[in-house]
């Protein structure tokens, strides 16, 4: 059987791609792309003429058998809309199916929004947990946040612009006013990295636009001490009001 190359592509800036990735994208005869228009812009920028076939959430069931059959004879490159395939995208299903069939899966590493947001957040990077996109509905989102309220590791999540403010409100309500880094449009022209408390982030992003990565402080000693100080201040205020 041939090889499935899992190729990382830029999350914004087209210069953020490796020489190895460019070589392989030019050598294979077919690229399975989550967004063919975005991938074609990347290929055009580097004069690569390899054929594309769409492989996204709405086509993955219909295309899976075709791509697995293709891999019996030819190498195939898999690319996500942006970043590393397999993370919160349909590429995961193809990778799993290829592994189960004994097809060689070779990673071509590169940029990832998860790691990029984490390392510039200013929060602990020694251990972290990636939770993907937060649930869409408020009730489900709050239940999920409740399940990780005692998580000591730094938490990385994705969020859409139209749900960002609601998500931040739920994070503050369930997890508390923790330190957070909100990364917007990473590596793009309008890149913005906000660092502060959840309440401050909610006030800052009044009309959110673009793609967002959230890095949230875990339940660390520093967080617990902050909570204790906050509770003491609240108690002092109550005593003063009673007097």
Distance between the termini: 80 Å
**Class of the largest domain, according to the CATH hierarchy?**
Alpha Beta
Tell me the CATH architecture of the largest domain. Answer: 3-Layer(aba) Sandwich
- Give helix % range: 40-55%
| Rg measurement, Å | 21 Å
How much is the average pLDDT?
Answer: 93
What would you give as the CATH superfamily of the largest domain? Tetrapyrrole methylase, N-terminal domain
Number of domains: 2
Q: Element order, helices and strands?
A: EHEHEHEHEHEHEHEEHEH
Low-confidence runs of at least 5 consecutive residues:
none
Q: What is the structural class?
A: alpha/beta
- Order of strands across the widest beta sheet? 3-2-4-1-5
Number of DSSP helices?
9
Summarize the structure in words.
With 243 residues, the protein is of the alpha/beta class. The chain has 2 domains: 3-111, Cobalt-precorrin-4 Transmethylase, domain 1 (3-Layer(aba) Sandwich); 114-221, Tetrapyrrole methylase, C-terminal domain (Methyltransferase, Cobalt-precorrin-4 Transmethylase, Domain 2, 2-Layer Sandwich). 40% of the residues lie in helices and 21% in strands. It has 9 helices and 10 strands. The protein has a 5-stranded parallel β-sheet with strand order 3-2-4-1-5, sandwiched between helices. Helix 6 links the parallel strand 6 (128-133) and strand 7 (154-159). Helix 3 crosses helix 4 (91-100), helix 6 (138-147) packs across helix 7 and helix 7 packs antiparallel against helix 8. It is elongated, with a radius of gyration of 21 Å. The N and C termini lie far apart (80 Å).
